[in-house]
Specification:
42% strand, 9 strands, alpha/beta, 22% helix, 125 residues, 3-stranded mixed sheet
Length: 125
């Protein structure tokens, strides 16, 4: 292994460690309330999970991590919109909702499969 490869590996390990530490910090701050915390990953061209289930009246907090691009997270029916910076955890608070289906989508053009990057928040009674 040459020096350049070694530096790349060290950098990748450091980046992964920083991402993990940031996730823990974000989860601790989100979990301080009574909200259900849900981890979401944004990556070309999908959200994982792409279906989020909640009970009516239950507040939630999404801890969203983008792996590769400045994706957008938009829930038009709830007036929620934010950018998701790569390698950072973005917290999105969702108040207590009435039963129903709330669509979310990436609204930053991220390539040829962009229109497939969407999901649903399903709230049951």
């Amino acid at each position: 292994m040459n020096r350049r490869q070694a530096l790349r590996r060290v950098g990748a390990i450091a980046w992964a460690g920083a991402l993990w530490a940031g996730t823990l910090t974000a989860r601790r701050s989100i979990a301080s309330g009574n909200a259900k915390v849900i981890d979401v990953v944004a990556q070309r061209f999908r959200f994982t999970p792409n279906e989020i289930t909640l009970k009516a009246g239950q507040p939630a907090a999404l801890a969203i991590t983008s792996l590769d691009f400045v994706h957008g997270f938009n829930v038009p029916a709830l007036g929620i919109r934010t950018d998701l910076l790569p390698g950072r955890v973005t917290s999105v608070a969702i108040g207590a909702l009435a039963p129903g289906r709330y669509e979310f989508l990436c609204d930053n053009l991220c390539g040829g499969g962009h229109e497939e990057m969407h999901g649903t928040i399903v709230v049951s009674a």
